[in-house]
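Hi, can you check this record?
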Amino acid sequence: MSSFSFDIHARAGRARTGTIRTTRGDIRTPAFMPVGTAGTVKAMLPESVRATGADILLGNTYHLMLRPGAERVARLGGLHRFMNWERPILTDSGGFQVMSLAGLRKLTEDGVTFASHIDGRRHLLSPERSMEIQRLLGSDIVMCFDECPALPASDDVVARSMRLSMRWAARSRDAFGDRPGHALFGIQQGGTNIELRAESAEALRAIGFDGYAVGGLAVGEGQAEMFRVLDHAPGMLPEDRPRYLMGVGKPDDIVGAVARGIDMMDCVLPSRSGRTGQAWTRRGAVNVKNARHADDPRPLDADCTCPACRNYSRAYLHHVFRAGEIISSMLLTWHNLHYFQEIMAGMRAAIAAGTFDDWQAGFHALRAGGDIEPL
């Protein structure tokens, strides 16, 4: 019997809540995965990330390949031990960097040759090498190697890219082999073209994966187009497997994706925003750098139980951000991750209780009201 499984406990329309079971612990879905690109969620201790409610983290194959190196991580006991996170880890394949570092790479049928952004040294990342790196890292969920173009792009460009990704998916499946206790996810591509999405899904189902991702979105197409694709794409993938939307997103993106059948998401937004002075709250985004907060003794969110809201005022958060103090990134990142996990917990409970429509209405109504008035 496989040590990786997915159980759906309740549904509300296309939204569902369930549990992904792995050898390192359960993942409650819908799940948001904080991004630990280089073996750390920036400005956070692993135990702090866990305290926000995260069941799983994401690590980045490309960055860990360059520094400190997958072989070194393996010699030191694997990524879980290396970064002191003993719960599940998903590693992306390096495929996103095929797009984001387009000026530093050469793409062929075999794979992608990168010039390192650190020292200029050249590295080949292929489906086989990506599977090897992720095996050395020891991640619980492994992503197949893919390529996606930035949007907008022509249908011809998207189709060529998608079909290359499907060939790479088959190679990834072969290279992954039989690894009890570890799961391999395929990645649907096709941009915003529904027919290409269907072709990609059919190819992935024929190969067979433990879970399936919707890739190639949140890359410039806008929320309306993303939701239009998500009205169709998740339903093309196997009903009994987890569905992962890669690289998403803002709070309303996340809620809209779950309503359309997505089970897992990741995004750098909560931590990146925290480092730039932006807090996400149930009333929307708050920029603590703004002068309106300089004399405000109130918390960011009076209903939030994170350390930033329990123990510090808007005035203090404004001060430490403007002063460039490290605690600013720590507190705001903690708050943002806490809030994102609070969204996930709220959706899980509402789906289970059959009140998801009411929960969504309240979520959007509170955000539409905007931040509290200045004192």
Notes: Residues 326-353 form the longest helix (28 residues). The mean pLDDT is 95.
